[in-house]
Amino acid sequence: VPVVSIPRPDGGYRIVYHPPLDLPSPEAGDLKQRARALTEAASRMIEGWIRDNPGTWLWLHDRWKSRPQPGEEV
Q1: Any idea where the domains of the chain sit in the sequence?
Q2: Cα separation of 14 and 38, whole Å?
Q3: Which whole-number Å values give the CA distances from 60 to 38, 57, 64, in the listed order?
Q4: Can you tell me the distance from the alpha carbon of 49 to that of 23, in angstroms, rounded to the nearest whole number?
Q5: How far apart are the C-alpha atoms of 74 and 36, rounded to whole Å?
Q6: Cα(42)–Cα(21) distance, rounded to whole angstroms?
Q7: Secondary structure of the chain as H, E, C letters
Q8: pTM of the model
């Protein structure tokens, strides 16, 4: 279940719970393809939150530990 906290002017936070993301059905491809589709859906949702409130965004985890090589398809 995606959850986001949004700062309020009074210093508190508004917590918003979103509906669960739709899990791709087994017919949608192999496990790797389904995992990718779910990751992309979650990333799009997070991207929307960041675009809505860019000044409140802070990412502490080294999510992108590797970088594609020049010319490598991503």
Answers
A1: 20-56
A2: 26
A3: 22, 10, 11
A4: 21
A5: 12
A6: 8
A7: CCEEEEECCCCCEEEEECCCCCCCCHHHCCHHHHHHHHHHHHHHHHHHHHHHCHHHCCCCCCCCCCCCCCCCCC
A8: 0.66
Locus of tokens 């860019």: 54
Q: Is-contact 13 5, C-beta < 8 A?
A: yes
Per residue in 15-65, pLDDT tens?
A: 999 999 988 788 877 888 888 989 999 999 999 999 998 988 877 777 677
| CB neighbour class for 59 (10 Å; exposed up to 12, middle 13-18, buried from 19) | exposed
Enter the tokens of residue 7.
């700062």
